[in-house]
């Protein structure tokens, strides 16, 4: 007998007490928990995102769409970055104001090569205000999972308010489970040594999140 | 279930040793009290905690009641998404499957992200015997591995070590395994973390095989979820060409939507955060991104035996958050190692004896490593009634009876008059007579009672006379102890 059959057989015997007409899934789970916590206006939800991101030590910047290239250029310059990883589908305008060397993540690039790149700039799929989380789904403007993992400095652009949801339940609704997803809440951290929180172990030690207003303002060139 | 630490003394003996160790006790007290307070704050932030907890409990219960169906559905989803599913009835089979898969790649080293399941089956040792070296990459696991030590807490496995000890371990051991600790390494946590980053980075960047567990598996989509803080999980799940995940069969949830409950309750219960720094979700393989070979090893190893017990099966709801450890007055005094298993604390006291059976002295004594104060039940995000299961298991130890072992019904002999009973009674006495171990629990217990009026576990009657069980006393524990044991022949 295969182990598969053995295990499934054991499960069936173990569950001899469960009636044939046991309550079906749809009725077995009470869903009376909240879809989101508290009532907020859209702008307040974005403020909450900024607050919670900062609470977990992400560096938060806010700007209008037209200012984004300058902001990104400034962040790379402050960091003294000489190279930046660029996902294949990143909006070219975002890097229009910087001279930093662009590095593409080619399939044959090795992790060692990526390790020599200073920074990475990506978009995101969705951001969760209540938990201060950004979620990446590997879309063309975010790239392979490794590009946001190996470099030590990650700049992530969130279009607000479109990409912001209040809560975890709302985020899951927007996401596609068939894609590889990475939920990021602040830079990597450990509390393994006497429970002292230390930022940055293996992931990027600096996470900068730029909240860019997607509504077109008067001096918005787009 | 294998993995009983060799020569592990019964709980009370091990606990006595722990109590004598000042460093251990100090570290443990600091840790549990800190996390406990933070958790309470994180939980208070969500007004619907009770509803989330109930939903989590019901999702898990429903899944367990139909586990065969969901296992088959999961297998189909993972396979359709490009993964390969393997089934392992016990630890040896799981270890063999993993070792063979690693050998097929031609590699002799693997990187590992912390996983209780692989610790439970002793995977590292089994791989070592096959000439494959497994590197633990979680900072705490690295400390444990380099220190040739055992983990003492689910969440912070090296919590029994202080910073000075960690620095010494890094200085003397890192060079043996790869990049040595930097010159002049001090004992500040930031420097120690930096040393670990440098030491492990070279291993991550060259790793061809990664090994993980998973916090959740979604039957409907075939998605696996790993929740972590440091980024070592992302490294292991993303950079290697081959990923092997060893996961207990009870880790299933039926639907994608069900994650909305656990992604809210797990981080707050575990690290007391709104959300942990990194959560990875993957479904089979993704073209051009991450490992192109994905193997899922579904592990039984005593879980179906546990499932066969209608009272005890609720232990399989556990999402390994470790909240019950941090509130347990007995754990705080005795330390994680006293439990003789990778699962310490209250959850270990009900899980290990079910996964492994109650034949050994340590496993027979574990259900007694508790004062039944109920604090563990109060904080458990899936509402496992740990005191109820403890009482149930005590009855089994005392009275014997029918249980399922490795899929077969067996009749256990009562422990009366055997070594197991003596070990059990010593554990009970130890837990009952350490007033310091009880103080914290009492307040929580009375709070539990007010918030959750509940009927008391029934079959405690098995112990009669002076051995009568304190079936979650309404009166403070010490009053009960005084009354029944303190002054001889007092009100019974
Ligand atoms: S028993 Fe409950 S509280 Fe304890 S680790 Fe498991 S889920 Fe957490």
Describe the structure.
- The complex is a heterodimer of chains A (222) and B (492).
- With 222 residues, chain A is of the alpha/beta class.
- Chain A has a single domain, classed as Rossmann fold, CATH 3.40.50.10420.
- Chain A has six helices and twelve strands.
- Chain A has helices at residues 3-14, 25-28, 42-55, 68-78, 111-115, 168-174; strands at 59-64, 83-86, 101-104, 119-122, 126-128, 133-136, 153-160, 164-165, 181-184, 189-190, 198-199, 206-213.
- In chain A, the strands form three sheets. Chain A has a six-stranded parallel beta sheet with strand order 1-12-7-4-2-3, with helices on both faces. In chain A, strands 8-5-6-9 form a four-stranded mixed beta sheet. A two-stranded antiparallel ribbon of chain A has the order 10-11.
- The longest helix of chain A is centred in the first third of the chain and has 14 residues, at 42-55.
- Chain A is globular.
- Mean pLDDT of chain A is 93; it is low at 216-222.
- Chain B contains 22 helices and twelve strands.
- Chain B has helices at residues 11-20, 22-44, 49-65, 67-80, 91-105, 116-120, 123-129, 139-146, 163-177, 189-206, 232-238, 259-270, 303-307, 323-327, 329-334, 345-356, 361-365, 375-379, 386-399, 419-433, 435-451, 477-486; strands at residues 84-88, 109-112, 133-136, 209-212, 216-218, 223-228, 242-248, 252-253, 278-283, 293-299, 401-405, 408-412.
- In chain B, the strands form three sheets. Chain B has a six-stranded parallel beta sheet with strand order 1-10-7-4-2-3, sandwiched between helices. A four-stranded mixed beta sheet of chain B has the order 8-5-6-9. Chain B has a two-stranded antiparallel ribbon with strand order 11-12.
- The radius of gyration of chain B is 22 Å and the shape is globular.
- Chains A and B meet through helix 1, helix 5, helix 6, strand 9 and strand 10 of A and helix 2, helix 3, helix 4, helix 8 and helix 10 of B.
- The site of iron/sulfur cluster has 14 residues of chain B, from helix 14.
